[in-house]
Amino acid sequence: GAGVSQSPSNKVTEKGKDVELRCDPISGHTALYWYRQSLGQGLEFLIYFQGNSAPDKSGLPSDRFSAERTGGSVSTLTIQRTQQEDSAVYLCASSLGPASGGAYTQYFGPGTRLTVL
Amino acid sequence: DQQVKQNSPSLSVQEGRISILNCDYTNSMFDYFLWYKKYPAEGPTFLISISSIKDKNEDGRFTVFLNKSAKHLSLHIVPSQPGDSAVYFCAAILGTSGSRLTFGEGTQLTVNP
């Protein structure tokens, strides 16, 4: 597809379970980002990948959160031992990356709505 | 520390009139600013951007103005259409990191027919 895709679109889980969220960036985009939007809150940065490396993971809220990116493409965000405060919409974005002459525009996927019961 | 602020949570305008959405920032090192539109249950959609070396960028009905001395930017939509009703987010990026977007809280725009 032409845009960023994310799966699943909705995920309901029980407190304490692990979840994996997937992001497929736009083809050719070397930079990939994860954000989240909790209810009534703004968009909060989580982690940034350039290729398969994560030079900025400072937004991850706890060590229960981790992410990886393989082949410079698909990324997975994993939340272990989910808590109710993890409930949010998790958004993935991609861009051509800072090496591409300043093409900073990030394009977002539709998000995964995570509900932790 | 909210580095990007949108002080108006909502704005209501009549169809055909101008919508002006405002954004203030505190970090003078930001060098690129973007506006996104978000409908419910969808991801943000990129609208328009501006480099810090410019003071205006125009794309169709959308114009973004940047006042660096005041650390203020605004998005003008003329003429406003009912389909423009959405949440608008202002975002900023540090060129040195080329990484995260720092977002404002968003402004809900409602365009009444």
Strand content of chain B: over 45%
Shape of chain A: globular
Globally, the shape of chain B reads: globular
The number of E-state strands of chain A comes to: 11
Mean pLDDT over the residues of chain A: 92
Compact overview of the structure:
Chain A is mainly β and 117 residues long.
Question: Would you mind describing this structure in some detail?
Answer:
The complex is a heterodimer of chains A (117) and B (113). Chain A is an all-beta fold. Chain A has strands at 5-7, 10-13, 19-24, 31-37, 43-50, 53-56, 65-69, 75-79, 88-95, 107-108, 112-116. Helix content of chain A is 0%, strand content 49%. In chain B, the strands form two sheets. In chain B, strands 2, 4, 5, 9, 10 and 11 form a six-stranded mixed beta sheet that branches. A five-stranded antiparallel beta sheet of chain B has the order 1-3-8-7-6, with no helix packed on it. In chain B, strand 7 (62-67) and strand 8 form a beta hairpin. Chain B has strands at residues 4-5, 10-14, 19-25, 30-38, 45-51, 56-59, 62-67, 72-77, 86-94, 101-103, 107-112. The mean pLDDT of chain B is 93. The chains are: A mainly beta (117), B mainly beta (113).
